[in-house]
Specification:
The structure holds 2 protein chains of 2 kinds. Chain A is mainly α. Chain A has one domain. Chain A has helices at 2-23, 43-59. Chain A is elongated. Chain A starts with a helix and ends in a 5-residue tail after the last helix. By secondary structure, chain B is of the alpha+beta class. Chain B has a domain at 35-120. Chain B is 53% helix and 9% strand. Chain B is built from 4 helices and 4 strands. In chain B, helix 3 packs across helix 4 (90-103). Classes of the chains: A mainly alpha, B alpha+beta. The A-B interface holds A 37-38, 41-43, 45-50, 52-54, 56-64 and B 30-34, 51, 71, 74-75, 78-79, 82, 85-86, 88, 91-93, 95-97, 99-101, 104, 130-133.
């Protein structure tokens, strides 16, 4: 008797969870997903490092 | 006799000093590329990537992979040190070096274009990231 009531409650809870689960909405991100790597590196940083990087390449000619 | 010997010793010492000084000029510190790397580069089997590292162009063989990994490990160490000295991140410095390394390719050598494709360097300027100086 009690067992049947408990089973019924559990089934009800499962049903409610499933129904709630169906209510979850997923919003698309507002900004487009960008795949490009290193996109956060700014041009001014590259300009600042350019001379040093050029010298590094000349000084390490065996690995460039 | 003693004086002659002394003079001879002096001139020999002077000659040795001159040779040492000349040697310093004749043999600069700049090391050359490893012959296997130079050959792979000339053959277009390896190329300069946008990110500042070397890549295998076409089919990858164990030997090409070994050459590329060896170079890239050394490059990473240099980038890391220089990035720290310039208060920059490793990626920032490597990308900048990639700009310069692609610019320094010789006609016939391979490099990676901004769209990711491998290109053969021609007589003109290479196709580079718009952020490159």
């Amino acid at each position: 008797m009690n067992h049947a009531k408990l089973t019924g409650r559990m089934a009800g809870a499962t049903l409610a969870a499933t129904a709630l689960g169906g209510c979850i909405t997923v919003n698309a991100p507002e900004e487009p997903i960008v795949i490009e790597l290193n996109v956060n590196i700014r041009q001014e940083v590259i300009y600042r490092l350019a001379e040093d990087a050029g010298n590094t390449i000349e000084d390490n000619a065996d690995i460039f | 006799m003693g004086e002659t010997m002394n003079r001879l010793t002096k001139s020999m010492l002077a000659a040795a000093a001159v040779a040492t000084a000349l040697g310093g000029f004749v043999a600069p510190a700049y090391a050359q590329r490893d012959p296997a790397y130079a050959a792979a580069r000339a053959a277009g089997q390896v190329g300069e990537k946008m990110d500042g590292y070397l890549g295998v162009v076409g089919s990858e063989t164990p030997e090409l992979k070994r050459i590329v990994n060896d170079i890239n490990i050394k490059r990473r160490a240099v980038y890391s040190e220089r990035a720290q000295a310039n208060n920059a991140t490793l990626e920032e410095y490597a990308l900048t070096a990639g700009c310069q390394a692609i610019l320094a390719t010789k006609p016939g050598e391979k490099y990676q274009a901004p769209d990711g494709s491998w290109q053969t360097r021609g007589a003109g300027a290479p196709m580079r990231d718009p952020r490159c100086p």
